[in-house]
Amino acid sequence: MERISGRKFTVEGDYAPILKGDVDIPNAEAVDPLLFLNNLAAGGHSLVPQWGWGRIAGKKNWAQFFLTPAGMGGRLDGGGYAVVWGSSTYDQVAKKNIQTPIVLRFAICKHEKVDAPGANHSRGWHPGSCKNCGLDMTVDSGD
Predict the structure, then answer these.
(1) Cα–Cα distance between 72 and 75 in angstroms, integer?
(2) How wide is the angle at C-alpha 75 spanned by C-alphas 58 and 85, nearest 5°?
C-alpha cells in the first residue's frame, strides 16, 4: 500500500496568522450557530480547539476556533470553524440580552482531490491528494 507524502498544516505555521487575527478568516462561509452547536455536541471530540482572534473584514474580535482533522491520522486539513464574538444587545420588550455570535466555516485551501495510482474505490481504498496544496487526502474505508 503506497502512501502519499503530502503537505501538512500546522498550528504554529499555517494557522498562526489566522488565530492571531493578522489576516481575515480565509474562505469563510456563515454557519447557523445552532447547527454548529448540534454538530459540536455530536462530533466535537475530533476537532482541535484553539483560542484566538477572528478577523472579519479587517475587524478583530475574540474567537474560539475548532480546527478540522484531515481524514485519518490526527493531521489537520487547513480548515475548521470559527466562533467569533459578535455582540450583545438588550431587548427592552423581552427584558434580556440577545447574543449574536458569528459562526464561520473556513479553509486555508479549497481542496480538490486527485486520485493517486492504485485507487480501488470498490474496495474502499481512496488514495489521493489535493491538486491545489498537496494535502494527503487518502481514506481507507475498505476491508
Answers:
(1) 7
(2) 30
Calpha distance 126→116 (Å, rounded): 8
Q: Which residue has the cell 481514506?
A: 139
Nearest-angstrom CA–CA distance, 51 and 23: 15
Q: Which whole-number Å values give the CA distances from 125 to 117, 119, 129, in the listed order?
A: 11, 6, 13
d(CA 11, CA 23): 15
Q: Whole-structure pTM over 0.85, yes or no?
A: no
Q: Where are the domains of the chain?
A: 11-110, 112-143
Q: C-alpha angle 23/81/111, rounded to 5°?
A: 80
Q: Which residue is associated with the grid cell 438588550?
A: 90
Report in angstroms the alpha-carbon separations of 24 from 9, 11, 84, 130.
Answer: 18, 16, 12, 23
User: Measured between alpha carbons, how far is 22 from 24 in angstroms, rounded to an integer?
Assistant: 7
pLDDT digits (tens, 9 = 90+) for 65-88: 999 987 666 788 889 999 999 888
